[in-house]
Design goal:
375 residues; 5-stranded antiparallel beta sheet; 19% strand; alpha+beta; 5-stranded mixed beta sheet
Length: 375
């Protein structure tokens, strides 16, 4: 095994296989069916996340983590770093007395923005990541082309921040990433606007605490035919748990929806898949009490789309929809999902489907549970 750790393609797989085998066969852990990096001990209240050679352990008693450290030390060269303050570049701030936790990538974003010409001393403040995207179309023959390598580098670096702690830029970054193969100067202008926004709000953090709802809730939304070049809609969704987002998406739908109801129905089906994955993770963690006795609550702002999930006999409005999107209807019938109506002003996922003006975007940030001095 030691020979395979250096310079070979199978190195990462061999290491993961060795570590996983030791945790399961020797220490009594069970690997999650939904998330292969998650392990739960069968008898001790121990949960751990394994990422390459980083292990994050969660337990109610210190003696359990001490036991785990001693067992791992018998097999591997280990180092106990104590309470977690940083993981994969993510800064973790805890307030044990108030039972609050915050996640941010401020230091990472600081280095990225400084590298690409947005130092703290020189920039124009901006309150939203994208004001509109009507001009965000494929490059035209008469347009000047921007350096592809630079454009892709910035997109990739900002994507890391978006995936982990900055859901507020998911929509803007998703639209800009569609033009990575052939970016124009117009696309670069939009991307610079996004970096200006990040510089203005670099201190924003994800917040989780007892003030938030303790049951898993999913918000789903869609912007019908929002893309002017192909008239496709955008799906948005966010899962809220203990006052903060734990999963989010902003994605262009693969088919052209013929109505706003259809686009919302497709969005519900896409987010329903995410819901079932999160439910399985909670079950693997032995935390089924956070799911809800009547199924996971999904909130939508389109009455027609909600009616489609409850009435399978609306043939004229739904028989042309691809079968895979009726998955959400099946979950509702089984009682695993309950969809409720919510006004658009309270729809947290609204900011994942389209650009919002300043007031609406600030409301979106607050609804996400993000905190920071820049708010």
């Amino acid at each position: 095994m030691l020979r395979s750790l250096y310079g070979l393609k199978q190195a990462a797989r061999d290491w993961n296989s060795t570590c996983r085998q030791y945790l399961i066969e020797k220490l009594g852990f069970v690997q999650s069916r939904a998330e292969p990096c998650l392990f739960v001990h069968q008898s001790r209240p121990l949960r751990l996340l394994l990422y390459v050679d980083d292990i994050l352990c969660a337990t109610e008693k210190l003696e359990n983590s001490d036991w785990l450290y001693s067992k791992l030390s018998e097999r591997f060269t280990t180092k106990n770093l104590g309470d977690v303050t940083k993981l994969l570049g993510i800064r973790i701030t805890r307030n044990r007395k108030a039972r609050e936790i915050c996640l941010d990538l401020e230091q990472y974003l600081e280095s990225v923005l400084n590298e690409h010409g947005f130092p703290a001393a020189k920039y124009r403040p901006r309150g939203t990541p994208m004001r509109e995207y009507k001009k965000l179309r494929p490059i035209q023959p008469d347009e000047e082309r921007h350096d592809t390598t630079e454009y892709q580098q910035v997109i990739g670096k900002l994507m890391y921040a978006m995936v982990h702690t900055r859901p507020d830029i998911a929509f803007a970054l998703g639209k800009l990433s569609q033009h990575m193969q052939n970016p124009s100067e117009q696309h670069w202008t939009y991307l610079k606007g996004l970096m200006r926004y990040l510089r203005s709000t670099i201190d924003l953090k994800l917040y989780y605490g007892p003030k938030g709802h303790t049951k898993l809730s999913l918000y789903t939304d869609a912007d019908w035919a929002g893309q002017k070049n192909d008239r496709k809609s955008t799906t948005g969704g966010v899962a809220i748990f203990y006052g903060g987002p734990i999963n989010w998406l902003s994605r262009t739908q693969r088919v052209v929806a013929t109505s706003s109801t259809e686009s919302e129905y497709i969005a519900q089906a896409v987010n329903a898949k995410t819901t079932q994955w999160l439910v399985q993770v909670l079950r693997d963690l032995n935390c089924s009490e956070f799911i809800g006795s009547k199924g996971v609550r999904m909130l939508a702002d389109n009455q027609g789309a909600i009616a489609l999930t409850k009435n399978p006999y609306l043939h004229e409005r739904s028989r042309h929809i691809d079968i895979k999107y009726h998955y959400v209807r099946d979950l509702v019938e089984q009682g695993k999902l309950r969809i409720k109506y919510i006004p658009t002003t309270k729809m947290v996922a609204d900011g994942f489907t389209k650009p919002l003006e300043r007031t609406a975007f600030n409301r979106f940030i607050v609804q996400l549970g993000m905190v920071g001095k820049s708010l």
